[in-house]
Amino acid sequence: MDRRIKGEGTWDKTAINGIEYERFRKTYNGKRKIFYGKTKRIVQNKIKE
To answer: Residue 13 half-sphere exposure, CB side, CA atoms within 13 Å?
Structure first.
């Protein structure tokens, strides 16, 4: 597996109330932003907005 470039962000899965969600975390201008969604595509659309 290749290493990611620094600042690229982190993808993982998390469970909230027993439901599994995709999560993307990235730091923008010193502040951490977290995006959640049922699928990776939904999260990617939220990131674009």
So the answer is: 8
Query: 26: which 2 tokens?
Result: 């990235």
State how far the Cα of 26 lies from the Cα of 42, in Å rounded to an integer: 16
Start-to-end Cα distance in the chain: 30
Tokens 């990235």 sit on residue: 26
DSSP string spanning the chain?
A: -PPPPTTS-EEEEEEETTEEEEEEEEEETTEEEEEEESSHHHHHHHHH-
**Tens-place pLDDT, residues 1-45:** 567 777 788 888 989 899 999 999 988 888 889 999 999 999 989
